[in-house]
Every structure is written in C-alpha cells, then in structure tokens.
Amino acid sequence: MKIKFFTVLLGLFTSLNMNAQELKSFTLEDLNFGGKNYRNFVPQNRNCVWWGDQLVRVESDACYLVNNQNGKETQLFTVSQVNQWAGPTKDIKVRSLRGASFPYADKSLVVVNTGERIYTIDFKSGSLKKCNEFVDGEYMLEMNTKSDAIAYLKDNNLYVSRGDQKWQLSTDGSREIVYGQSVHRDEFGIRKGTFFSNSGEKLAFYRMDQSMVTDYPLVNIPEVSFQPENGKSRIATLAPEKYPMAGETSHKVTVGVFDINTGKTVYLKAGDPTDRYFTNIAWSPDDKTVYMFELNRNQNDCRLISYDASTGEKTGELYRETDAKYVEPLHPIVFLPWDNSSFLMQSRKDGYNHLYLCSIGKSGSRMAGNTVSLDVKQITKGNWEVLDFLGFNAKRKGIIISSNEISPIQCNIFFVDLKTGKRTRMDEGSKGWHSASLSKSGQYIYDNYSEPNVPRNIAIVNVANGKCFSYFKAEDPWKGYKIPEYSCGTVKAADGTTDLYWRMVKPVDFDPNKKYPTVVYVYGGPHAHNVDARWHYSSRSWETYMAQKGYVLFILDNRGSEHRGKEFEQVTFRQLGQEEMKDQLKGVEYLKSLPYVDADRIGVHGWSYGGFMTISLMTNYPDVFKVGVAGGPVIDWKWYEVMYGERYMDTPQQNPEGYAKTSLLNTAKNLKGKLQIIQGYNDPTCVPQHCLTFLKACIGAGTQPDFFLYPGEPHNMRGHQSVHLHERITQYFEDYLK
C-alpha cells in the first residue's frame, strides 16, 4: 500500500511538472496591439448597438437581434444580403457590417457607411432606400438621420447636402482657414467641428483661422523603397504643423450657423475671438438657441452663453464659474426630454465633477448685464466624481450615470432620481470597471465590464426593476500560458494623507527569496490613470512580457492624475512634475521595503507625459533609477501647446520661475544612468524640438543619453512598428538593468 501510494504521488508530481512545462510563453506578436497574433489574446466581445430599445449584435458577416430577457439571438440579415439589396450589380459593396447602425427606432432601417458610400437599407423589405456617394476629395463629417442632411468637406470647404440639394457654406477653406473640424487642439472635450440641431434643419460649425499661428517645420522623407530613376524627387518635403506654443499667438475661432430652410449662414456675435476658447456647443430643444461655454485664455473664467440661432445675437449669460487656478469645461449642457426649460450641467465647482439641474427662468426675466435667470440645483454630491452621463429615463424622470462613488478605481452604473437625488446601483458583479450604453428610452442598459479576475462579462439590465441578465462571459484568452501575479494596493502620497493606488506585476515563476530588477511604468499627468479594477488591474500587455523575462513591474497613479477631485489634480499647478515625482518616490520607498526588489536595479519607463516624468526622475533622482526609456517626452513646457500647457503652467511670461523649475534642460547635467529617448520624427504633439534640444544640453554637459527615431511616425507608433518599439524598449532594460 505504501509503495502504491508513493507511486500515485510520483505520478501526480510528474503530471503537475508536465503541465507546468506545457504552459506557453507569450511573444510581443501575441501581446502588443500591433502584433500579428494580438487579436487572439484579447478577451472576446459582443459588438452590440441599440435599435430603439432592442439590442442588435453587429458582426462583420451578419447582424442578430438579441432578446433582452434571455439573450436568445435571431439573425436579421447577412452581409451577402446587404450587397444584394444595395444595388443591381454583383460587385461587393459592403465588406463588413461592423460599423452598421440602427438610428430609426420605429423603422427597420440599417445604415452602413463604407467610406465611399452610405447605404440606408430596409432589411425587412430587402430594399435600398437611399445611397449617398462621396467622390474623391469629399470627406463626410456628420449625418443627421432626422433631416437626412449630411455635412462634408471638399477641398477644405464645408458643404451640406440633402437629397439632390447641395449648399456650399464656405469658399476660403484652406490649411490656414479650417471649417467643420475639431478646434483648440482637441482640448475642452472637443472631438468634432459640426453640430446639427435637434431637427437636423440647422448646423452649427467651427471656423478656425490659424493663419497667424507659427508653423512648426516637420518633414516627410521619401520611402525606403524609393528609386531615383522613377522621376520623383529624392529630397525630403516640408510637412508643417500649425503649432501655437505656450505664450505665443494662438488661432481664432468663430461659430457659424447654417439654416437649411433659408440657405443662409450667420455667425454668432461673440465678439473678438482673440485669446478665447469656444466649446461644448449645444442646441435648445426648439432649435432657436445655441449655447456654448466661453473660456478666457487664462482658463480661470468660464461662462455659459446663449445666442439666437437666426440672428447670431447674444441673448444671455446663464452661468459663470471662476477658479484661482483653472476651470475646464468638458461637457455640453443637455436638456431634459420632458422639460424644455431645464438642462443638466456638469461642473467641479464643489471640488468634484458632479451634475447640476439648471432651470431657465420661465418668465424670461433678465438680470443685469443681459443675464438669463437660472436656478441651479446640485443633483449628485460627495468626494467622488461622475465619470459619464449615459442618458435619460423619461418614464421614471431620472438619469443613468457612471461614477467612482464605490471606489476610486471602480466605475459603476447608477440610476439617479432627479427629484430626490437618490441613486440606485444598476450593474452586477462585486467590483470592476463598467462601460455601458443606454437604449433609446432608457429602459435597458448594455453593461460591458471586467474585473481584476474577469476578462469580460456583458449584462443587460432592466432599469425599471434593476434585474441583470448575463448575456455573455468571455473565456480567458490567456489560458494555457504562463501568467504572472497581478496585485493592487495603496501607499500614502508625499502629503502624508492621500491614498495613491498602485499595480504590481510579479515575475512569472516568482520566487520570494530572489532579488528582481524592477521597472516603474509611469504616466502621471492629468486626464489619465493607469490603475483600476479592470482585468489584471488594467495592466498593459508589455508588463506581462517583461514579467516573463524576470522583472517586477510597478505602476502608481500619483496626485495630478484624473478622477480624484480638483484638489488632487491641481496640486501640480504651475509646477508640473514636481509633486508627481515626490509621489513616485513614495512608491519607490515601498518597493525598497520589499525583500524581493533589488534596490540597485530600478528602472523607469513612460511615454508622452510619462516620458517627461521618466527623464525628470532620471535626472532629479540620478542615484535611484539606473535605467530609463522615455518616449515622446516634453522637455520644456514653453515648447508645448497653448491650451494644455497654459492651463497647468500659465504662460512663460506669467510663470518664469515655474517654467525654469520644470525644464529638463537644467537637469541634463545630472544624468548618471542609461537613458534612451525615443521619438516619432513627425510627432505633432510633443514636437522633436523637445528631444533635440535636450540632446544638445546633454552634449554641452557631457552626459550620454541614447536616441532613436521612427521616421514618418506621429506621437505614437502605428501598426506593426509598435512591436518593433516594444522590442527596443525591452532590449534596453535587458542590456542595462538585468
């Protein structure tokens, strides 16, 4: 019996050992988003859109109607059928249905945009209702399904078409005079430049004059495969970028309003647009009024202004918010569907981003200075932030939001009663990060979420009773591979009181008795965070790759990052990088307290703001960090763009001490460890002047950083070049930190 028992144990140990040996290791082709196998290692998803209150799963080959109660799917149509219905010829017009939409809640119509054509098809009758075709040089900006109007660009000029009618809204469009596109370098929540009214009969649009803005001289170089005998020039060509640096002359923006019924355009009479920002354009329910937030260049005085859409005249100032540091409007107002005189507004005036219910004086009375009477009632409140407004449920007179009320690293979904302010949680799961979309009436929520140990779950939630139906659970796509340990915790910030969240990835086959090299991955800037309760605590795949190679990875969200309130973010005001470094050093203190971290082999890596932080840490704390890799870094904030740079630093003229204190040119002489700087040669965000001037400062100081360029690439490497980039980053740590 003893011999038999020993044999069983031996067999068990042999089996376990074989199973361990059978586990595979990842390559960058598996893990990196530019890799050839990347899609096989991302948790499976269900690509769904709403058709009114009905959910439709949209795949490349077919669309399926999903039963909201039990998840049963019924095929609506296939891509082959769409191609048959799209026209009499047999050529393939639509290759994928992934971008299909169902914008008409009461009609069996699907809209498929191929780029060259927009097909509107009745899938019940199997017939083509409309086809909008775009010829070479035409670029669609926005389509309105209520009026069937389309806004598009041609030769830099703005056009609107509806059926056989076409209107040209501008004639002077150029590289310097820009119409219908995002302005203010995508700050203040701006993502587009055209805004149809509710009926679709009017269009508000941006006009940006950037003729006075200095060109930054980016350069396009010929392709590697270029042959001189083909007659093309061998000389690199200029590809200048209009780049307003902090303290320099910026562009001027105005807002036009086009009326389809009159065929006329008026411009809002907002006064001189010099040193002002216009953002978050919204329409009144009756299409008679345009609202927008207007912000001074100092970004400390924000006002909500209304304009007559027919005349362009200013009709009132509804709201004003000031701050000693800065105000940052990010969201347009949204009118209640059951009350045309009330709207929701988001503001951080009490220190956290919350929702306010605003009611316009019903008598139409005006106060001094032509200011509209406005009653403001706070709807949400607490030391947490509203992360997103998802929509209305008119039947229950409430709204659906996402927030981090439960935890700073979670995102949860709530129904909010607008009368009482009572919040009811609407998602399933114990913790996690929930990304949701709302059906047309607000009756159902499509909740796509993950948790630290859950790759992806999708639930359909009935808002009326809060019941969640589990629609889809993804398998672990990393099953059968060597997986490191992912953990999360907190340390105190340099202020001694604030909790900062960190993520750690331990080496594969971790041995607590060993000493491991450690890489601190850092971003650290506003409008971003690295640690949350998603799968693997939001770990980047490169961290897993490095853990396979025997590294500890450590990531800390310092003060200055997002979603923790105004005080948490604004501690960096006029001194970017300084408090952030102090917090990162608190993380390093924690690392050094761990017996398995080799304090003599600590590296740091980051991109963009993280590149700035990487070089800041390498040169301000040269005895702490042995190796660093900085990508697309800011070196001196006076060379960064106006909107972002001046919000956090003021201008170089206003804050010379702060600019001098944060400039890395002054610390180039301190570099001791190995530092590699990587730059996209055509980076329009952190222009190459940053890196090149830092190199010059290092030459003057006698320090020796390494430098690598990606020709033709912007701020981030695209496609398969990202694999090459991460191979390079990895190898640098292998060469000098291992």
From TrEMBL:
GO biological process, one term: proteolysis
Keyword Acetylation: no
The Dipeptidylpeptidase IV N-terminal domain, residue ranges: 119-455
Keywords tagged on the record: Signal
Protein name according to UniProt: Peptidase S9A/B/C family catalytic domain protein
Molecular function as annotated in GO: dipeptidyl-peptidase activity; serine-type peptidase activity
Pfam families, per database record: DPPIV_N, Peptidase_S9
Keyword Magnesium: no
Signal peptide from the UniProt entry: 1-20
Species of the source: Leyella stercorea CAG:629
Residue intervals passing through the bilayer: none
Domain Peptidase S9 prolyl oligopeptidase catalytic: residue ranges: 541-738
Gene3D superfamilies (alphabetical): alpha/beta hydrolase, Dipeptidylpeptidase IV, N-terminal domain
